[in-house]
Amino acid sequence: MILEVQQLTKVFGGSRGHSHVALDGVSFSLPAGGSLAVVGESGSGKTTAARIIAGLETATSGTVYLDGHAVSAHARRRRGTRDHRKRGRTVQMVFQDPFGSLDPRQRVGAGLSELLAAHFDLSGDERRARVLELLHQVGLDDRHAQMVPRSLSGGQRQRVAIARALAVEPQVLILDEAVSALDVSVQAQVLNLLVDIRAETGISYLFVSHDLGVVRQVTDTCVVLNRGVVVESGATSQVLDAPCDPYTQALLQAVPRPGWKPRRRT
């Protein structure tokens, strides 16, 4: 398994002694080259789990194994350290809003080149060639290397964010609602792109999503979270076609069907 999560628990403290249990003994695994969905409504704990795996949050208890090695339960507080770079080379994360990972003043190609220089011993010519290779891999071309993020469409910005994540050659790519803000047609293009990249590179995906249509299209297995607890897991087709837990059944019933029309208020 490239990723194993065992009994992951996260408790957020609150004012006046109140606390919130975001994750309560969550366990799941992801094989090398596999694609796993973590599904649930807002507040289910799915993004918290993803951020802990990526090293952006601290677990209260539990263990995360990446490529067979237990990683620190602490968030990446010190950038540039050996542990930080090692985890970054193993797992990368793409967010719903790509602006968080893009410098609005920096040209796309320069940003990718800077990232490559930080992780690999490449000559200038080698970096330039790799930048163009990454852009082509995500469906962009040489022109986009000279553009700044504000000159790109939403779909193009998300493609750049994916290229940046792929640049360090991670084994696991976490996609946190990475297509939910895109138009339906653009969303389909990006999903097809991700399917192709996985087939070409053998990378493993961890999809965090509330969109069951996306989950069905791009994942092999599925974990359903409800208030920080795993309520159902298994093959994606099995979970979505024959759900056992009432919560999963309710999620599926909430998906609009063809011909669905909103009720009129009287």
Summarize the structure.
This protein is of the alpha/beta class and 266 residues long. Helices cover 36% and strands 24% of the residues. The protein has a domain at 3-100 and 170-253: 3-Layer(aba) Sandwich (Rossmann fold).
- What is the string of SSEs from the N terminus onward? EEEHEEHEHHHEHEHEEHH
Helix residue percentage: 25-40%
Distance between the termini: 54 Å
Secondary structure tally, helices: 9
CATH top level of the domain at 3-100 and 170-253?
Answer: Alpha Beta
**Low-pLDDT residue spans:** 259-266
Strand content: 15-25%
Q: Which structural class should the secondary elements be placed in?
A: alpha/beta
The name of the CATH architecture of the domain at 3-100 and 170-253 is 3-Layer(aba) Sandwich
Within CATH, the superfamily of the domain at 3-100 and 170-253 carries the name P-loop containing nucleotide triphosphate hydrolases
Largest sheet: 6 strands, mixed
Question: Radius of gyration over alpha carbons?
Answer: 19 Å
**Tell me, what's the shape?**
globular
CATH fold name of the domain at 3-100 and 170-253: Rossmann fold
For the largest sheet, list the strands in their spatial order. 6-7-8-3-9-10
